[in-house]
Amino acid sequence: MKSAVYRGVGKLSMEYKPIPKAGLNEVVIRTTSTTVCGTDIHILHGEHWVEDGRIMGHEHVGIVHEVGEGLEGITVGDRVMCSSNTPCGTCFYCQKGMAAQCVGPDGKQGPGGWILGNTIEGTHAEYFKMPYPNYNLTKIPDDVSDEEVLMICDIGSTGIAAAEKANIQIGDVVVVYACGPVGLCAIAGARLKGAGLIIGVDADPARMEIAKKMGADIVLNFKTINVIEEIFRLTDGRGADVAIEALGKQETFENCLRSIRRGGTVSSVGIYSGHLHIPIETFAGGMGDHKIVTTLCPGGRERMLQLIQLVKTHRITLESMVTHRYHFDDILEAYDTFEHQKDGVIKTMINF
Amino acid sequence: MKSAVYRGVGKLSMEYKPIPKAGLNEVVIRTTSTTVCGTDIHILHGEHWVEDGRIMGHEHVGIVHEVGEGLEGITVGDRVMCSSNTPCGTCFYCQKGMAAQCVGPDGKQGPGGWILGNTIEGTHAEYFKMPYPNYNLTKIPDDVSDEEVLMICDIGSTGIAAAEKANIQIGDVVVVYACGPVGLCAIAGARLKGAGLIIGVDADPARMEIAKKMGADIVLNFKTINVIEEIFRLTDGRGADVAIEALGKQETFENCLRSIRRGGTVSSVGIYSGHLHIPIETFAGGMGDHKIVTTLCPGGRERMLQLIQLVKTHRITLESMVTHRYHFDDILEAYDTFEHQKDGVIKTMINF
Amino acid sequence: MKSAVYRGVGKLSMEYKPIPKAGLNEVVIRTTSTTVCGTDIHILHGEHWVEDGRIMGHEHVGIVHEVGEGLEGITVGDRVMCSSNTPCGTCFYCQKGMAAQCVGPDGKQGPGGWILGNTIEGTHAEYFKMPYPNYNLTKIPDDVSDEEVLMICDIGSTGIAAAEKANIQIGDVVVVYACGPVGLCAIAGARLKGAGLIIGVDADPARMEIAKKMGADIVLNFKTINVIEEIFRLTDGRGADVAIEALGKQETFENCLRSIRRGGTVSSVGIYSGHLHIPIETFAGGMGDHKIVTTLCPGGRERMLQLIQLVKTHRITLESMVTHRYHFDDILEAYDTFEHQKDGVIKTMINF
Amino acid sequence: MKSAVYRGVGKLSMEYKPIPKAGLNEVVIRTTSTTVCGTDIHILHGEHWVEDGRIMGHEHVGIVHEVGEGLEGITVGDRVMCSSNTPCGTCFYCQKGMAAQCVGPDGKQGPGGWILGNTIEGTHAEYFKMPYPNYNLTKIPDDVSDEEVLMICDIGSTGIAAAEKANIQIGDVVVVYACGPVGLCAIAGARLKGAGLIIGVDADPARMEIAKKMGADIVLNFKTINVIEEIFRLTDGRGADVAIEALGKQETFENCLRSIRRGGTVSSVGIYSGHLHIPIETFAGGMGDHKIVTTLCPGGRERMLQLIQLVKTHRITLESMVTHRYHFDDILEAYDTFEHQKDGVIKTMINF
Questions:
Q1: Cβ-based contacts of A289 with chain D (< 8 Å)
Q2: D residues 114-153 closer than 8 Å to A (CB)
Q3: Domain Enoyl reductase (ER) spans what residues (chains A, B, C, D) (predicted)?
Q4: What is the dihedral of CA C289, C290, C294, C295, to 10 degrees?
Q5: Among all residues of chain B, which has the CA nearest to that of C98?
Q6: Quick check: B47 and B154 in contact, CB under 8 A?
Q7: In this predicted structure, what is the pLDDT of residue D111?
Q8: Fewer C-beta neighbours within 10 Å, C or N terminus of chain C?
Q9: Of B272, B277, B286, the CB nearest to C271
Q10: What span, in angstroms and rounded, lies between the C-alpha atoms of D53 and D18?
Q11: Are D41 and D339 in contact (CB under 8 A)?
Q12: Residue D97: helix, strand or coil by DSSP?
């Protein structure tokens, strides 16, 4: 099968690999759609290590190709998906309601439940094995398109979780730094949670535009305005109730802290590659009842079905983030476009 | 001042009473808008006792007419409102985060923090005293109309609280029995909380229509369909995650219990005038991890501001429930229309 | 193997059955300790239906006897246990954090995750199969005795969960109706949750005595005192914050409602065999911000380990409830003693 | 009246000031007990600015000396106290359930609700005015001594809140850095919340000893053991569920992060005087579902009564921290002892 394979930092090649075989309790999926995600770029840049030869990719839709022994209720031909984070269902974390931190049945996997396109072969190939199908395999209703659900695998589940973990109350003022794919989903999440004023922060006009479509009431251009001052102006000097970090940089993390009121929450879903710094004046010397929470993409079949329900009733329309479409044969070009943020790209969709 | 006065069960009369005077820590409001609420009808029917001669009414908007000694930051001419539930801010319940159950500074008021138009004179008069203004007086922003905020005093705050107390998770299936004013606000609340499928239940075509405008995906007519069966059909045999009781009858309370899945929640904001019955088969013999929660209208300035924020960004449009408008001189007619549910009335607005 | 077998209402017989064989993903346990639990008596009385010929029993400690294919990390000879409630780990309820309501991988089991000694053979036999061992099999540390952990399988987990689900805050006043085994564990749970005043209610002197050992500050004898009046006297006329129903009768359910303050919680772990009635005056007409929650025994390996941790540091000493010990050969006598509450029995322990 | 007065960094003098007079809604208390608290030392060291001439002190018990107009239910001679944090009851924060961050009725006070001995005269004097008595004045039951309740004003409420805000679940492993007065109260709080293993960290033998009395199962001496390694050893390599920072230093903050598992919580009640640093390796690059929460002392009458309930039933025995007693005339000596941690001092009690 054709596969996009990681060959060391900055190197990606299209290669042929054998189609995987479904063993005991295993299922093989024929990929019908996938994406290039920010995490794939992190890998390509060497910011997240994967083994040489790894097939990357985790957002996907597919068709069941082969069902191994021991599995019931799964049929060849079923249109299915799973989250990028594929919990085992039995480990400490899975039993304790923190399945995103799954360490596998033997406790040695991870850390963190994201293995697809990371420690095992991913979805940038014509076929892939879905981990722990009893927990993760999700049948997609006929009245929902690939495009509509493709991004709930990862950025949708993650961005919306940023809003959920922040414990947004209806009417809250929420600031989202920044309006990349995860930030846009966090905006959608803030809207779902009933935020009363949603403020996006970015400088890219295309992203600022789509941020409004996803639910932002206001989008501030940090190149032309003092964002912190504006947030305090908009909140009568008090600060936002919640700030969401969706970039993974010290600057945005720090601005989140500067944006919130006493008792406010910074909800972070950015992936950081360096140390973080909390300036004393942003933290009230520890006396501000501040909260900082971080979240890894929640997965599992029921998480996917929860989000699919929102797709079905048009509460979320993540497909509006797709700016570019490619055939899988051209996935290296899709990588290039996304990596270098060419042509106003927000999200690419890869078809097979 | 002209006042609509309760004169015993079924009797209401327009009378003249003296304009109240603002004493220490008191403020007098000139009423500019009010409504007839379901609770007023309960009083009229003798289902909730108030003293003979009481001015009823609690949903309102007004203008500060007189400010007593001891109050700062309140100016004659301010356009203001408060909730129908007016917590004192200092009692056990207020300090414990259950201000709706306020018993007053001396612990003897109530029970329950609703006193306006109940144990003290209400808003069906040209002027009224607002209780505990430091906690309750809420200035209304200029860009928000009377009509837009009028119903957050009571039915808006209550109905939305039904959704909040139910702890609706994004994507949840929520059923609302029935689609009167509070039920309609509960539908709006379910939408605010991110419900993935909202099912209204009623039989009145006008209410069914407006239920959709307020956010219901489906409205079931209990006269033409087996509602419980349909809910189980819509949820693949599992039942709803949450059922909201917004009528106050055994039948709807029981149907709520019959509608939910194991581990589901019945959130009740109906006002009952009789005993309630839990059929054993609706309760899994106590082993179903069911929850039943009841809620009294949350009040206080910050609750009002929270809801006004939602009005400002058009998250809620409660004014679409206003089907009838009257001048205060005709309030007896408004009562009659609302009491007898004439002419497709949902909510009446009374202007001065 | 010797087995105590249900043979219709009121009938129990000691019979020989074949030792079960461990199939794929299965494990067979040799029982070393078990108990007679209240639920076993419910079965015997025909209040809970099980199939003729069923081996009852669910509280237990044992030794791994045979390990089927597909399981790793489990060794013959391991000293182990599981909860009476044995979630599958993958169904809707398991993924949603309500594993006690597990319906099994195919969604058809249950309802409710208690199958051991109910829909499958139980622990009143020399050997039994443990359901879903990957999720449930719990290795017991050497420094903890059978007796110390035996009752966390069911009544310990259930009673403590009654306190957890009630969301007891430190300092709360908690009333527990009544002081049978589950109620005693609820008292221990209330203590664990930091309740500031724990009031047990019973009339049996032995139970009243042990209630104090388990953590009750006061135990009221309902035969000699007006319990509701006394609770209001002890709480300065306000009522308890939480009342726990641990008997499963209308009378105690109703007394729970009568015991709590506005905004208080009734946490029910009794098993009811009839309809329930909520007198209007106990419910503030639905306006009291009351909560009623019900709980089924939480299971799973991590739940067991959580409770074993409490055993290890002597936070709970459930073994003090054991008043009677029998050899398995005499289990019919143990049933008789427990069923008829002879000889001040609280809890029986059966050894093999 | 005799008063201990701040006269610039490092300077404290005993002076005579006039006894305050009770104005409208004010009450004057005659101090009967007070303490020297860590915050007083921060002030003395110039780490927290107060105005020259300020009377410090906030932990106290006293007798009502004079009651101003407008207050009901308060009588000269009542034995009373309030928290060091004295919410107004009406501001945004008070209404939103975050009263510790009270900004006063005009929104300009603070930030943070601690004003006693900070922006207004404190309790290191024979008399003091209690702020917002309707919200804060707490009558002390006769069967409770000054000594037993003295420290719930501040360190007790704060330390216990550290455990509450960490959302400790029963059975959790909790580490407390370090075992000064607040850390000792956090240990008591962890015990109240049902922690299954409580690990104190300190190097002072007297503190290590009392940490056990307050509820620690183990106390690690950071001078003789690698604390992080030991925590991982004690938790089978997983890390603690919760770490409480009770010192206010980068080192302990960082060690808290290093001590917790994925999905764990750092609950911080230390007061920091410098920037904080989060090493990337302690934070899983933002993907660990970590939480950091900070807490300021919760105040108000109902908070005090909640803690007094725990004193009454001997759930907490904070008086065991009192190692030194002084007459108020010798308060400068008490400061000296506490400031320089002489003579194994943990907590000083000052009598009048």
A1: 98, 100-101, 293-296
A2: none
A3: 8-346
A4: 70
A5: B263
A6: no
A7: 80
A8: N
A9: B286
A10: 13
A11: yes
A12: coil
CA distance readout (Å), B211 to B152, B196, B223: 17, 16, 17
Structure tokens at C239: 């009522």
The amino acid present at A243, given as its one-letter code, is A
DSSP code at position C168: P
pTM comes to 0.97
Does the beta carbon of A273 lie under 8 angstroms from any beta carbon of chain B? no
C-chain residues near A92 (CB < 8 A) = 302
Contact A202, A211 (CB under 8 A): yes
Cross-chain residue pair C89–A90, CB shorter than 8 Å? yes
Give me the mean pLDDT over the C242-256 stretch. Answer: 98
Question: Residue B89 and residue D90: Cβ atoms within 8 Å?
Answer: yes
| Phi, psi (degrees; rounded to nearest 5) at C321 | -85, -15
Q: Which two tokens stand for residue A51?
A: 């083994």
Q: ipTM for the complex?
A: 0.97
Contact D197 C164 (CB under 8 A): no
d(CA A166, CA A161): 8
To the nearest whole angstrom, how far is the Cα of A172 from the nearest Cα of chain B?
7
The CA distance from B136 to C225, in Å, is 43
Give the residue-averaged pLDDT of C247-255.
97
B229-252 residue pLDDT tens: 999 999 999 999 999 999 999 999
Q: Residue D349 to residues B37, D32, D128, D206: CA-CA distances in angstroms?
A: 58, 11, 18, 18
The two three-digit tokens of residue B244, written as one number: 């909201």
Task: Kindly list the structural domains of chain A, giving each domain's residue range(s) and its CATH number in brackets, ordered by start.
Answer: 2-154+298-351 (3.90.180.10), 158-294 (3.40.50.720)
Q: pLDDT tens, A41-64?
A: 999 999 999 999 999 999 999 999
Please give the pLDDT value at position B4. 97
At position A154, the amino acid (one-letter code) is D
Query: CA-to-CA distance for D307 and D315, rounded, in angstroms?
Result: 9
Joined tokens for residue C46: 């025909």
- The structure tokens listed for D351 are 């009598």
Torsional class of B263: left (φ above 0), alpha (ψ -120 to 50), beta (otherwise) = left
* A278/D276 CB distance under 8 A: yes
Identify the residue among B158, B170, B235 best suited for mutation to test binding to A, counting A beta carbons within 10 A and taking the highest: B170
C28 contacts C78 by C-beta, under 8 angstroms: no
SS3 content of chain A, % helix, strand, coil (to 5): 30, 25, 40
pLDDT of residue D263: 97
The mean of the pLDDT values for chain B is: 97
Torsional sign, CA D48, D49, D53, D57: negative
pLDDT exceeds 90 at position A325: yes
Chain B: closest CA distance from residue D322 (Å):
30
Q: How far is the C-alpha of D253 from the C-alpha of D232, rounded, in Å?
A: 17
Which amino acid is present at C350? Answer: I
pLDDT of residue B111: 80
Cβ contacts of C94 on chain A, cutoff 8 Å: 89
pLDDT digits (tens, 9 = 90+) for B53-81: 999 999 999 999 999 998 999 999 999 99
Shortest CA distance to D269 belongs to which of D114, D344, D160, D140? D160
* Helix orientation angle between B250-259 and B227-234, rounded to the nearest 10 degrees: 20
Determine contact, residues D349/D151, Cβ cutoff 8 Å. Answer: no
Tokens, residue B186: 């509960």
> With 90 as the cut, is the pLDDT of residue B99 above it?
yes
Which of D196, D217, D309 faces C197 most closely, judged by CB atoms? D309
pLDDT tens, D155-174?
999 999 999 999 999 999 99
| N- to C-terminal Cα separation, chain B | 12
Q: D338: which 2 tokens?
A: 């506490």
CA distance A196 to C276: 41
Say which residue the tokens 């906030």 belong to: D58
